């Protein structure tokens, strides 16, 4: 969907919606380590693209509606309308948002969220997380955790990118590649168990309730996700990224003999911020799910992780609009008109 906004003027074939739905359901049902947010966002974007094209909207309005589709898909899956609205805006450009899409994005996210509630979709709010008092020592460990999450984000991005490059070099057709990927996932299951297959939501909830996972769990999950997506599976990367972040936070807490539940919450937000370059959405997500006090600490780790991860992203189509650090010969800020001209 991000690529469609930037490179195809918001045009997404309507047939993408049912195809993506069926393919994603099959991938996840057979144990593929892929997420639901990406497919939901793509389905929403495809529907908005089809509606806007049929209604005769111009290219600018069509692109805005595609962004609304991304936001509404995120909001419907997680039950976080504010984070969904901001994510749809923030994921397009690294370091900048198009504020003229802010209102429609919020409207679409809120409507999507309440529609899901009306249809009986249950959302669980994790209010059970104990947030520590703010002290200099806690602050220091939170900053250190942000640095760690930044490097975990880089690892996650590079793992997915490496496996994609390897898959492209494998001289097999798509069916044989799928069999090869399935065999690799079976090996992961044989050596590490079935915790790393599928969405992994039960493991995330288990960690939030104080359950323990191996310190290497985030690396194995990243490997499993890269294999399924590179070798023929379809699905999103956000839910696996939440697993990676949650497991990394738990590992950080265990290593330093700190509260693993608290740091798993921070990892949940921090790795999203560093991997997708969406620190503001990550803070809102933590706030909506875990409360305002958690959001304050999540803001620290999200900003630090975002800075550490550099200009790499889970989304290769994401455009660098503003550098995180001064780069030689790079104009620091692009105006909104300049960014709009890049995608129109």
Along the chain, the helix and strand elements come as: HHHHHEHHHHHHHHHEH
Query: What is the count of β-strands?
Result: 2
Distance between the termini: 15 Å
When the domains are counted, the total is 2
What is the CATH C level class of the largest domain, in words? Answer: Mainly Alpha
pLDDT under 50 segments (min length 5)? 327-344
CATH topology of the largest domain: Clc chloride channel
Strand content: under 5%
Question: What overall form do the CA principal axes indicate?
Answer: globular
Helix percent band: 55-70%
Main β-sheet, spatial strand arrangement: 1-2
Could you describe the largest sheet, including whether it forms a barrel? 2 strands, parallel
Task: Count helical runs.
Answer: 15
Q: Architecture of the largest domain in CATH?
A: Orthogonal Bundle
CATH superfamily of the largest domain, called what?
Clc chloride channel
Rg, alpha carbons: 19 Å
